[in-house]
Amino acid sequence: MNARLNERASVNGVLKATGTLRTAVCRLFSRGVVGMVAAAGVWFGGLGVERAWALVEPQKDTKQATPNARSVAADDLGSLRESKDVQELWYVLLLDGQRAGYMISRQGTTKEGIISQGRLLMQIKRGATSLSLSYASEFVETPEGKPVRMSTTQSIGAGVIQTDRIFTPEGKVKVVITAGGQQSESLVDAPEGQWFTPAAGEREMKAQAKAGKKEITLRMVDPSSGDEPIGITRKLIGPAVVEVFGRDVPAMKYAMKVDRFADVEVTEYLTEDFRSVRSEINLGGMKMEQVLADKDLALSKLNAPELMVSTLVRPDKAIPNARTSTRAVYELSIDGGKVDVEQGAGQTVERLSESRIRVVVEPAASAAVKLSTAQRGELLRASTMLNHEDPMIREMLVKYDDPKLPVMERIERLRGAVHTHISAKDFSVGLATASETVRTGKGDCTEHGVLLAALLRGAGIPARVASGLIYVPQLESAQNVFGYHMWAQALITWPDGEERWVNLDATFPEKAPFDATHIIIETSAMNGTGIENQLVRMAPMLGQLKIRVVEVR
């Protein structure tokens, strides 16, 4: 690692200058980094949309010089400007040993209360295209640990979502979400039960560790967790010596888990006074690390790592005529791990062993579905990602949807409309909402999926998105591979009177059939403001998944 970085941090100076560990550092690392990197760089990076059909010319080289990390307002203290006791930690982010960005954790006191801030910037490449990802959070609480307000701003490429939550004396939380030029407000109940705010949770975690407790579990609410508390468990492994940019630092090794990511474990190295010097996560074949550093190193220029081509899955054989396939059988496996994908919407799954499954994909054989009233409501409502109440989305519906037509014809018209509307097939967007996409006409598979799902809901048709894999003969420098992809699903009534899911890939040209080389990993209603919870099934597969093509016809 030292040879690649050729940089050295003054670890002693950093440790002396900073205060106590922010537990938010590890939450930001495990949730923000995992969610945004996997989503933007791999899964939601998807394929080059029409490239899945191999009907377009090779993508132009959009390689750009990676911007200096200082382009993000890292020095802006925001609400902490009035604080006279700001404590600050800087971290370098590494992906497979290559520097990819930085994180900052700050805490201070103002007249408003104790303010905890987290900021993250990552720069990655998807093939030849550079993409910036940023995340900022802030939590304000009283000295006694009562919540006042919290906010997040997340940006992947051109897509920006800001969420503000204000805690009221009546036990409610006012939620204001701004995305794509649209703003929505709602009032929800505050989380029930016992839970800790960031600063109060930090104090409690440290107190229990000082008291000799080897395993500590707390329920926490912070900006990244949204309206519901998350369970954080930290277990002491024992003393260790950890390398930090060429210097050996004595530390205590901990294993940390977040209940929403039960299969993902963070390895932490903390000093005796509970300050984080290094944290690591292994996601399949990808190792992500945060390492304590000084400010200059954290903000120095970097060469962004590539995160799309490196995660493509090469099957055991090529698939001729993939785009016209109607039925396929695959065996998916992970050496030494558990492989898990979703069943339904024309996909059946048979478990052969803990590490191997047989997947049969036959889109025309979608099984009947029975939904409760609540489930149906979730698949019809407007959300931040799928805001079908947006005037421009309504305008698009008026133009392309005709309720008098048969439902199959309606959904195909909408699929074709999305394919045409997104005229700039671009890897640089990252993760835009339907509202942003309808305005820009720009995006990759993600934007095609969310805009189509929003239009379907606006037309009164229950809809969701599916994330998984698709076979492509050519992508960047790779041939005959499966790449991570996204598409929409509509729930419609079939001629036999039963409701079934229909897969709709708007990256395909008009009148093109949905083929059997789509493998569903996960489906989502996309009703939250974040994306990281949809990585539960995919995370262990990165760089580890193997596909054997048993039969395609």
Q: What is the general shape?
A: globular
Number of domains: 2
Tell me the β content: 35-45%
Q: What is the average of the pLDDT values?
A: 80
Strand pairing plus helix content: what structural class? alpha+beta
What topology, given as strand order, has the largest sheet?
A: 8-7-6-5-4-3-2-1-14-13-12-11-10-9
Secondary structure tally, helices? 10
Supply database-style keywords.
single chain; 553 residues; alpha+beta; 2 domains; four-stranded antiparallel β-sheet; disordered N terminus
Q: Short description, anyone?
A:
By secondary structure, the protein is of the alpha+beta class.
Structure description:
The chain is an alpha+beta fold and about 550 residues long. The protein has two domains: about 1-300, no CATH class; about 310-550, C8orf32 fold (Roll). Helix content is about 20%, strand content about 40%. It contains ten helices and 24 strands. The strands form four sheets. The protein has a 14-stranded antiparallel β-sheet with strand order 8-7-6-5-4-3-2-1-14-13-12-11-10-9. Strands 16-17-15-24 form a four-stranded antiparallel β-sheet, with no helix packed on it. The protein has a four-stranded antiparallel β-sheet with strand order 22-21-20-23. β18 (about 425), α9 (about 435-440) and β19 form a beta-alpha-beta unit. α7 packs across α10 (about 445-460), α8 (about 405-420) crosses α10 and α9 (about 435-440) packs across α10. The longest helix is centred in the N-terminal third of the chain and has 21 residues, at about 25-45. It is globular, with a radius of gyration of 24 Å. It starts with a helix and ends with a strand. Residues about 1-70 and about 530-535 have low confidence and may be disordered.
